[in-house]
Design goal:
This protein is mostly helical. The chain is built from four helices and no strands. The protein starts with 10 loop residues before the first helix and ends with a helix. The model has no long low-confidence stretch (mean pLDDT 77).
Length: 75
């Protein structure tokens, strides 16, 4: 009896399979998905401004420093 042949994949399906097998690509897509879930562009802009103010102006008050530690997950 002859062996069964698998149906051929479309070129797009083959390309998708190849990309998903590449760990760097699938990891990047997962990272982008998680960032989109947790961070809005407005939130990113506010965080960048807060970091810039921190670098240029120092820590400020103790309450700001504690809030920054909590934001970074270090407390």
């Amino acid at each position: 009896m002859a062996a069964r042949r698998r149906p051929r994949k479309s070129p797009q399906g083959q390309l998708e399979d190849d990309l998903l097998k590449n760990q760097r690509w699938s990891g990047l897509k997962e990272q982008q998905r998680l960032q989109a879930l947790r961070h809005t562009p407005q939130q990113n802009a506010a965080d960048q401004e807060a970091c810039r103010a921190l670098v240029q102006g120092g820590w400020g008050t103790d309450a700001e420093y504690v809030a920054w530690l909590e934001l970074c997950g270090q407390k």
